[in-house]
Every structure is written in C-alpha cells, then in structure tokens.
Amino acid sequence: MKKLLTLLVLISFSMQGIAQVKRTTTQAATVEVVAMEDDESSEDVISDTLKIKAGKKYAILISIAAYPVQVAGDNLGNEQKELKDNFKKQNLEVIMVRKHCFLKFENGEGLDMTNSERPFQSTAYWSGDVYDEVELFDKLTHTTEFVAAQMGIKKESSYAITARKTNETIGKLATSNNSTANSKVTLKKYLQMYQTPFLTESEEYWYLQEIPKVKNIKIFFTEKGKDKLYKNYDFNSAGQITLTTNFNNKGKPSDQQKFVYKDEMLTEIIKEDHSITVNYDDHKMILSENLGDANETRVYWIEKDMLLSKRYIVMTDNTYADQNSVIEDKIVDNCVVTYVDGNVTFKNCISPYGVFPFTHSYISYQFNPDNQKNEFMQLIRFKIIKNGTKSFEKQYSSAQNEKEKDNYTPDTTFHLNENNLISKITNEKNLVKIVYSYY
Known about the structure:
Blueprint: E1 6-7, E2 33-35, E3 49-52, E4 57-64, H1 76-86, E5 92-97, E6 101-105, E7 109-113, E8 120-126, E9 135-137, H2 143-151, H3 158-174, H4 181-191, H5 201-204, E10 214-223, E11 226-235, E12 241-247, E13 253-262, E14 265-270, E15 275-281, E16 284-290, E17 294-303, E18 306-315, E19 325-332, E20 335-340, E21 343-350, E22 358-368, E23 373-386, E24 391-397, E25 408-416, E26 422-426, E27 431-438
Parallel strand pairs: 1-5, 3-6, 4-5
Antiparallel strand pairs: 2-7, 4-8, 6-7, 8-9, 10-11, 10-27, 11-12, 12-13, 13-14, 14-15, 15-16, 16-17, 17-18, 18-19, 19-20, 20-21, 21-22, 22-23, 23-24, 24-25, 25-26, 26-27
C-alpha cells in the first residue's frame, strides 16, 4: 500500500476574502503563500480545501492544468519517487496535486490554486512546525536539492548524480582512438542501412544480403502516372555511402548528408547545419552529435550478427538533467529489446533470416511514472511470404495484443530485379521504383 498521499481534488471551489495567487507571464502561474484572515473559520474552506496538519514534514508537488485541459505526462511520479528514496529517514510525506484546490496549513498559511483558468506548477515544503513558514520552489525538478536545503542537509537527485557519471563515460568514448579489424566489421554492418533506404528498419531484417557494387540508388514515387524523385544515394567504389539527398514535392533538394572517410573508415557525417564525428574503440563504433539543447552519443556494436546500439542523450544545461536519457538495445530470448532509462520500451522479435514465411513482431510499452510500471501500448506483427523467386509479399496481422490470434491481410509487394535487388514496391495506394547504377 502506498503510505504517501496522492491528491486529486475536485474543481468547484470559489472563496471570498483570501488573497489571490500571484499572476505571472509564464505558461504556468507561480503559487504564492497567502495568510488566512483571523476571522476565517475552517468551515469557510471546506469543499475543495486540503488541510495540512502540523507534526510532519511535507513536500507538495503541484502540476495543475488550466481547465478543461487535462494534465498528461507530467513529472510528478518521478519526483515523488526521488523524494521518497532520498528522505526515508526524515519521514517526509509527499503530496501530489493535479487539480485546482486550496491548501490550508495549520500554521495559518494557505496556497490558493482555485482559479481554474490558470495552470500552476510549483513545489512547496513545510517542516510541520506551526512556527515555520511554507517555502516555495518554482520548479518540479531538482526537488530533492530544494527540500534538502530547507532541512539544512545535503542531498542530490539521482539524475544529477547519473548525469555526472554519464558525462565521464561519453567523454572517454568520444576520445577513443582504437580502430581495428573489428571496427571495420561494425562499420560495414552500420553502412548496410544506407544500401536499403527504401525499407523500414523492421523490414531490413528479411532482406539482409550482400549488395553488388552499386554506384547510385535513386528512389521514385509514382504519382498520377509520373515518377517523382524522392531520394538519391551515392556510393564510392568500396560500396560505402558518400552522399544522401532528399527531395521535396517540387523535386528540389531539401536535405543532404555527406560521409567522409579516411582509409575506408568513416570519420565524419556532415549535415546542413552541423556534423557528426565518428571514432572507434575496437569493436565499438561511436558517433557524437550536438543537437542544440542536448548532446547525443551513439555506440554501435555487433552481437549475434545483429547491430545493437546504446544512445546517451545529455542536456547541455544541467538544470534539465532530469530529461537526460540512456537508450540501450539488448538481446533477450532472440528478441532485440530496447530499454529507455532501464525500462523496456520496444521489443522486436524476428524469425531466422532466409526462412519463409519470415515473421516480425514489434511491441511497445510506456513507463507510467505514477506507479513506476511499464504498460503495454501496441503490437504490430507482419510476415513476409515468398511468391516465386522475384516477388515477396508483406502481410499484417490484425492481432492487437499477444493473446489475440493472427489474421493476416496482404499489404505490400516487393519485386526483385535481375541482380536480386528490390526494384519496385507496390501496394493499393503507392508505387515506389528503385533504380540502380553500378561500378
């Protein structure tokens, strides 16, 4: 049973004689402590009022949306866990407030959040001593540091500690310079995705094969009987991608990436507004990229002939360290399972390559910060069947969860050319043509 109080107070309260919440120009109003009038009795604030009694230490996490907008995906559950974990000895009681209400403290102070037209976001702390004031913090992150400061002790949020360790890890990764024969194997596996730019990541698994020395790949969408160039990929004589170009609806280049090599080892990917640096540590391939508000470091390696990755996303401003993420692939029971911050988020399960029908199941989960559990989100399952030697058909299952039976419906057909390369992709609505030129 949860020992901490979670509040979802109903909205309907309006009160005379109490100072209003301070209005701000920010998206969420700042909560202000107000003094209760001497002649106000407890009966004056009853229906939507929460009374906070003396004798306990309280941290109150407030995230209230303006009516009728509902709060979705706030950070209260994670911060509640942080506070519970960090202040076990202090017997801190944590209250989460997501509905407009009035908080009345036994020291005579109150927090007025009854204006349903305004959103509110703040953290409040009260020692439980009737002679102490309620203290406010205008953020819902780093609440451990705020509460610790009120108690006169030193404590730190787990994500702040993790951020320092992560920065040390990616610092070492980014400066690695150990290119080996194993590095070449990982690079080759990584570059395979650019040889099939017309396939989704889930479709690539059934089509793993050695590609002849292709010089160029052009991808066309056929619309109203006319072929429109969509993508253009150029390769060097070693079969490595050198340039990718996307085209807009008017047929003009809209985005390009250039790939730089030294001794056939990829060293840099140059985008239009920034670049990605590439380095190696034996079997590991490391890509470092600045995304503006965050830095991303991606590490690739091969395991059981599968290209796996671990991504570190670190905010440039440590104030937002709670938004840092580590996304990691692991092989579990012949499935590639993707963890986000230690929680299972995606699961990709495939049948053995080269055996038809080929099956692929994708399952997604969402972490619920309030109950700290993963919840099932979606199941997508398809199979690829072989129609002769030059045609393959993709069929989707109607099953929406793992308990339902599969009922497959044809969706897409892949056509191969004389070199066994996919040259055409068709379904009821679209026709995609792929044109190759060779060295």
